[in-house]
Structure prediction request, 617 residues.
Amino acid sequence: MCGIVGYVGPQSALQVVVDGLARLEYRGYDSAGVAVLGEGALHTEKRAGKLANLRGALEEHPIAGEGAGIGHTRWATHGAPNDVNAHPHVDNDERVAVVHNGIIENFAALRLELEDVGCKFISETDTEVAAHLLSTELARHGDKDLAAAMRAVCKRLEGAFTLVAVSVDDPDLVVAARRNSPLVVGRGQGENFLASDVAAFIAHTREAVELGQDQVVELRPDSVRVTDYDGNPVEVNEYHVDWDASAAEKGGYDYFMLKEIVEQPRAIADTLLGRLSVDGALTLDEMRLSPEDLRSVEKIVIIACGTSYHAGLIAKYAIEHWCRIPCEVEVASEFRYRDPILDRQTLVIAISQSGESMDTLMAVRYAREQRAKVLAICNVNGSTIPRESDGVLYTHAGPEVGVAATKTFLTQLAACYLIGLYLAQVRGLKFGDEIEAVIAQLATMPEHVEKVLDTVEPVRELARSLADADTVLFLGRHVGYPVAMEGALKLKELAYMHAEAFAAGELKHGPIALIEEGLPVVVVVPSPQGRSVLHDKIVSNIQEVRARGARTIVIAEAGDESVRPYSDVLIEIPAVPTLLQPIVATVPMQVFACELALAKGNDVDQPRNLAKSVTVE
Ligand code: F6R
Prediction:
């Protein structure tokens, strides 16, 4: 939530910062703004709405400056998304400019205190207090030491924040502070960068520096200095980003989401790469938790939000079946508020694409305080959640720019299956043959997804025909239920439609009253093999809704003729083991939601009111 960029070096800071913001716009698009230093003055421009509005304003009133620059793309928390509340915010003398990601929880008290000493506030934001405080502290330090002023300010702030600031008194310096909200440094040659996400500077450098909690960084063209809030130097972790700028380009597609859906087979293959050995065993070396740690686990708790939560719900079925360890799944935002029972024998699995969702991060911290072991499943290298966890399994989906999660969901599923199978392997469970068979099946999932993608054109046509529908319901059983939930979530967030998922067995306990003539109902049908009871039950459920007028859109295994008579539209997916079916069954739902949203004229990469990474609670 909110994207931040900072640059210092010989290039045009304005250009570098605006280009960086373009790559971070997925983090928020309520407003955008920049501040650049030059000729002893601070030049700022900011506009409500998407970055295009800021670009237009900069064309009309070009701003000059050869010093450092900062920029911000906003997801509004405090104050309406208008020009005044857009970042950067400046002090009354216009000597310092600040951009901020997070929420300053004690801003109201600080604002009163600052107003008492004569500061004039012009915005409704919490951020403006940081600009005035910084200016006050800077004056205390003889207008010389912006980093010392930043450290003093941070000690007064409560909440979550990344702050990035520049001052006219030191035009070749950018100073930033980090508590809870993401921030990463990009090291260049004679130039340095700062951003919420490496995507902002990947076109310039792939050498990154992780910043830890409660650290302040001073960025000059030739140096990066990191200290704690007391000014003590701290060691930093440097890493090489293993994807290049083209991975974060649309690559000929009109939308990132379309490209990311198509990238799914490769993303799954990359996530599985190097983990399945020829003798059928799994190796998850990077995970950091030892086999002994995993053997002592008596209970698993999965915590996550949104789409990642749906991955967790599916993981529960697989883990309990393969490992016989009780597994709970909970939305992270509720978890720590109910006094959950955790101990050293509890393994908490935190699933987060971004590794920055505040709800999940807070749940991770809580779990560790209770002495549970925490294993993260994450897509963004070096992000906060894996850094604060005992172990991590990275998905290798590459950057996901579309706000709606697609390829990262399928790779999270792959990672969950790997963890489930690995747990079964290290605990020496009796399902050895079954595990080997599933591992072999897992390896074939990229080609199955490819097959689904090759045959989804009818799904697109169907979606276009439903652009005027008000409601779509989704039904599933077993692992098909979380898949139905994911289908409904995609439709809500992209097409802004009422979409709801039900466990098909719950239908007769109330929701069936919603069914009326022509209502589209999407049903995920389990494989007829193996758990055929489940299959037969859902076939009955399809008939029940159809008898009441529903238009049934049935997602079923190719060759499952039993559902054909009751399907107004039949979408066939490859036959795979029931527990792995979510990987193939989700894809038509993604395509359906994306196409329906496009038919309604919606921006599928930047749906209204949303931001990719939710870094406030
Ligand atoms: C839905 C979506 C969100 C995220 C949720 C968690 O398409 O993208 O529901 O899944 O905000 O985000 P992460 O996985 O980054 O913690």
About this structure: The chain has three domains: 3-247, 251-443, 454-599. The longest strand covers residues 96-104. The chain has 19 helices and 24 strands. Residues 305-308, 352-354, 357, 360, 404-405, 489, 493, 613-614 surround fructose -6-phosphate (CB under 6 Å).
